[in-house]
Structures are given as structure tokens and as C-alpha cells.
Design a protein that fits this description.
alpha/beta; two-stranded antiparallel sheet; 14 helices; 42% helix; 15% strand; hydrolase; EC 3.1.1.-; monoacylglycerol lipase activity; phospholipase activity
Length: 401
């Protein structure tokens, strides 16, 4: 007889606060998508075929393409279950990636000149397919409807500050209860790639809040720390969901942080090159946008540095698992090359990453160094057991109460 999968009980009934964080990275979202497919398959081995990622995490955070993944995993379908199983994410990218990032392989001088003019006068892609597809799939689904708490960072260019769409904030600030489609469009509006996105929301009194958003990656490409911060605020507010947790103890957090790959080993740019760049060079050199690459990678790494230090200092190193590949080279390092060949290569990167040793950041060099203790696959199997055990603990604890 198959188990019935019930909603996750609040952390006050258990031992951990479970957090899933997914970086931004465009088409490279295929990498965390495949890793999540493996984790979900392990959870299904324990708890049955209906188990889904959203059933096990108190909060799922995602930026840019990570925000799309977060929404796919938590937006409800007509049966109040996740719209997508993790195993379907790969197909989503393969089916829609070429339409979101249409490829122009015309190398004639005229075509190249046209591209150059377009790069100066507007974003690389118009975003029309992405916008219409998200609105069609998500319809009237709002932030408050997600099946577990979510945190999706964006950046408001009118206010010049982050706008964090958080399930925890909706009950206190109704203007954040936006349509999930608008949130997804906003968090993925990467400068130079897609146009900025604006929309309005209204609170219960009819007061209007205007949002003018670009990609959350400019503020938090790795949203793990933002997610932990949102939980910490709930604890400080005295939320009954955290009544057994008096302080934000990092030892109580169980964090899975998924990257979309980086090019550190490739040593992409040199100071000699960058010294010659003006505005145009910072936005177009190396067939990419170096400025965008720099700030998204920088803020992703600083979060990993911080969490690695804190979890290690508190003897909770095994509670924090970061899965990232810093050896990407060539086309697989791009955020928008959506050819079938490149997407298949990204899938191979993800499958290879599962077999690699767990890596931890070297705080002196910034590079990832392999652990001798377990592979990423083994670590995910361990996490699946911990997540299932935590869910069971909360269910039995609440029954006893």
C-alpha cells in the first residue's frame, strides 16, 4: 500500500529547519534540475512515487532560472500537488529553452553588424515567449498559493533595492502577494539579456504598490542566505511555527544549495583585457556580458564562503551541502546557448557532477576542493534519508501532541 504524502508540518514539531536554495544561471538551470530529479527519486524510494521535493522543505529559494525552478516545484496543479515533478524539469528546459533563447547562427558580416546594433540599443532577447508561457502555465496563481514557503529575490530599479518575494512576508505585507508569473518574469529579467518587468499589486485597502524589476541575481544569485534570513525573521517575530526554536541556531538548519556551474578554472578574463574595456567591452566581451558574470558570480560565492565558515565553526558542516561545478568551459558556461547539443552537454555535466566528490570552498583560493568522504550522489542519498526522517518525526510528534 502506497504512503499518502501529507503537507510538511511546521519546524516546531521537528529537529531541523529544511532549506533548498537554487542559483541563477539561465539555460544552465538544467544542472540543478537533474540533481533535484535524483534527490526526488531517492525520496520516492523511501516514501513512495507520489513524494515531491516541496513535501520536505520548509522553504525553497531560487533566483532567476532558480526562481523558475522554485515555482515549478511549488506551484499547485488542479489536484493541489506540485505542477512539475523534478524528473520533468529537464524536458521543460529542452522543450522551451530554444524558444526562450532563440539561436541565430548566421555569421555573415551583415548579421554580425545587426547583432552589434541590437546589443547597443536593447536587450538580446525580447522575452515574449517566456512571458506568455509563464502567464499561460501559472494563470492566476499568486505567491500565497505555493505548496511550501518560497523566497524569490528580484531587484527594483526604481527603488534601487532588492524586492524579496517571500511567503513569510505575505501575511505582513500583502503587496508582495503578486502573481507567480510576474515574480518569475521579474527575477529572470537579466540585464542585457531580457527587458525589465513592471507590474502593480494592491493590498486589502486598495493601495497600489508598483514594481520595476530586474534579475534577482544582481542582489542574490545564490539565495541561500536570504532564505535563512527570512526564517530568522519569523523566529524573531515569535511565529508559532517556530515556537520550539528560541534563536536562529545554524545547527538547526539543514541546507541544500545548488549552483548552476561557473568558469573559475577557465580563468575567463584578465586584468590586461579588462583594462581596455569601456562600457561596451564590459557588456559584450568574450561573447557574453562580463559585468553580469562578475556580479552574479561574486555574490553567489560570498554566500557560500559565509555559510561554509559558519556551519564549520558550529560543528554542523554536514548540515550544509553545496553542489557546484566550477570547471565549466566553452559553450556549457553560457547562460543562453540553447542548442540541442549544448543542452545535452549540460545534462552530462549534471550527471557527471553527481559522481564527483562533494566539494567545499577553499577560503584562501576561492576554488572548490574535493572531499574524500562522499560523492554528491552519496550526499544526496544521505540528505534524502534525513529529510524523510524529519518529515516522519514531525508527523508523529504532532500526533502525540
Amino acid at each position: 500500500m502506497e504512503k499518502t504524502i501529507s503537507p510538511l508540518r511546521p519546524p516546531t514539531h521537528g529537529n531541523f529547519i529544511t532549506v533548498l536554495s537554487i542559483d541563477g544561471g539561465g539555460i544552465r538551470g538544467i544542472i540543478p534540475g537533474i540533481i533535484l530529479g535524483f534527490l526526488e527519486s531517492e525520496l520516492q524510494k523511501i516514501d513512495g512515487p507520489e513524494a515531491r521535493i516541496a513535501d520536505y522543505f520548509d522553504v525553497i529559494a531560487g533566483t532567476s532560472t532558480g526562481g523558475l525552478l522554485t515555482t515549478m516545484l511549488t506551484a499547485p496543479n488542479e489536484n493541489k500537488r506540485p505542477m512539475y515533478a523534478a524528473k520533468d524539469i529537464k524536458a521543460f528546459y529542452f522543450d522551451n529553452g530554444p524558444k526562450v533563447f532563440p539561436q541565430d547562427r548566421n555569421c555573415s558580416p551583415f548579421a554580425q553588424a545587426t547583432k552589434l546594433i541590437k546589443a547597443i540599443t536593447g536587450p538580446k532577447y525580447d522575452g515574449k515567449y517566456l512571458h506568455s508561457h509563464l502567464k499561460d502555465k501559472l494563470g492566476n496563481t499568486h505567491l500565497r498559493h505555493t505548496l511550501t514557503n518560497v523566497v524569490i529575490p528580484t531587484f527594483d530599479i526604481m527603488q534601487l533595492q532588492p524586492a524579496i518575494f517571500s511567503s513569510y512576508e505575505v501575511k505582513n505585507h500583502a503587496h508582495f502577494d503578486a502573481l507567480l508569473s510576474d515574480i518569475c518574469i521579474g527575477t529572470s529579467a537579466a540585464p542585457t539579456y531580457f527587458p525589465a518587468h513592471n507590474f502593480d499589486t494592491k493590498d486589502s485597502t486598495g493601495r497600489v504598490r508598483k514594481f520595476n524589476l530586474i534579475d534577482g541575481g544582481v542582489a542574490a544569485n545564490n539565495p541561500a542566505l536570504i532564505a535563512i534570513g527570512e526564517v530568522t525573521k519569523e523566529i524573531k517575530r515569535g511565529s508559532p511555527n517556530f515556537s520550539s526554536i528560541k534563536t536562529a541556531e545554524y545547527g538547526r538548519f539543514l541546507v541544500l544549495s545548488l549552483g548552476t556551474g561557473s568558469t573559475k578554472v577557465e580563468e575567463k578574463y584578465t586584468a590586461e583585457e579588462a583594462a581596455r574595456w569601456g562600457i561596451f567591452g564590459w557588456l559584450t566581451s568574450g561573447h557574453s556580458a562580463p559585468l553580469v558574470n562578475v556580479f552574479t558570480q561574486a555574490n553567489a560565492d560570498i554566500v557560500d564562503f559565509h555559510l561554509s565558515v559558519v556551519f564549520k565553526a558550529l560543528d554542523s558542516e554536514n548540515n550544509y551541502l553545496r553542489i557546484q561545478d566550477d570547471t565549466l568551459k566553452g559553450e556549457v558556461s553560457s547562460v543562453d546557448i540553447s542548442t540541442k547539443e549544448n543542452m545535452e552537454n549540460l545534462a552530462k555535466v549534471a550527471e557527471g557532477l553527481l559522481k564527483k566528490p562533494v566539494s567545499r570552498v577553499n577560503l584562501e583560493t576561492g576554488n572548490l576542493e574535493p572531499s574524500k568522504h562522499e560523492t554528491n550522489e552519496e550526499a544526496l542519498i544521505r540528505f534524502a534519508k534525513l529529510l524523510s526522517k524529519e518529515k516522519y518525526c514531525r508527523e508523529t510528534s504532532s500526533l502525540q501532541k
